[in-house]
Amino acid sequence: MLTSNQTQPGTSRKTLRQTHPIPDQYSSNYMAFERTAEPLPALQYRPSQNWIPPTDRAAQTDCLLQTDSYSIHLVSTLKQRIKASTLIKRMYASRGYQTDSASVFSAIPFQYTYEARCGQQIIGTLTLTIDSNNGLLADTLYKSELDQFREQGHKPCEVSKLAFAPNSSSKEIFAALFHIAYLYAHVLHDAQDAFIEINPRHMSFYRRMLGFCQIGQQQTCPRVNAPAVLLHLDLEYMGAQITSMAGQLKRRERSIYPLFLTRSEEEGVIQRIQPKKTITHTRREFYTDTRLSLAKT
């Protein structure tokens, strides 16, 4: 039986109109993000090593989350990668940033790009990279900071290439993208720490809304030729916030966690990623069972 803050997978919560804009990763000013009445997707680029969800309804094999107003998809085709790269380059160029490294085409293993769609239109994208021998983008400026976590036996992950089309997204979509990235990073890959390089102007937003903290001094990011700082988020902390607040839309918090997916929506996403898993009653048990199931495949 579902509790009052749960919805069936594939359904949306009450339509919200957000009054506060969501900053993109490096933009020098905020872009307004208002929830539309159509669906969105999520995108990713990982060619051969990306895990693609099994065939789903309407042949939406890349669909991770479908609601009445948007959908999130894992980018898995050439067409999707082109669209995602185009959106990132367009938004970066509009801020006067370099766009040479804005593509989501890459041979790095364990990199996932998600796209948010309204109908068939891509309106947002986020890329997640799990640490490997190739390292992370942030190693260019902050390798010593990242190595401190690696030396403790932690597995880092990185959020990058976060971009939204102007006037077409919302905090709820932003939250959905981060929640799905969290499931891939912490639940599927057992990453313990998330990092993101952002424009210092947006540091307070990520601190307040998600709980990030600064661990690197301000430098100039060579990929976009813009100021950047490195932020860190403990994924155990993130999981605890999701457990206590996700889906509680009426809860008055400065945090964005009440806009994260409900438990039933979260379970639906993980079932698409690992459809043979049996859902358990608590998030902690669910995550543990998922890891064990993956280890046997």
TrEMBL record:
Q: Where is this region: Disordered?
A: 1-23
> Boundaries of each N-acyl amino acid synthase FeeM catalytic core domain copy?
84-234
- Residues spanning the signal sequence: none
Please note every region of biased composition (Polar residues).
Answer: 1-13
Pfam families documented for this protein: FeeM
The record's section on InterPro entries has: Acyl_CoA_acyltransferase (IPR016181), FeeM_cat (IPR054597)
Q: Which SUPFAM superfamilies match?
A: Acyl-CoA N-acyltransferases (Nat)
The protein, known as: N-acyl amino acid synthase FeeM catalytic core domain-containing protein
Which organism was this protein described from?
Nitrosomonas halophila
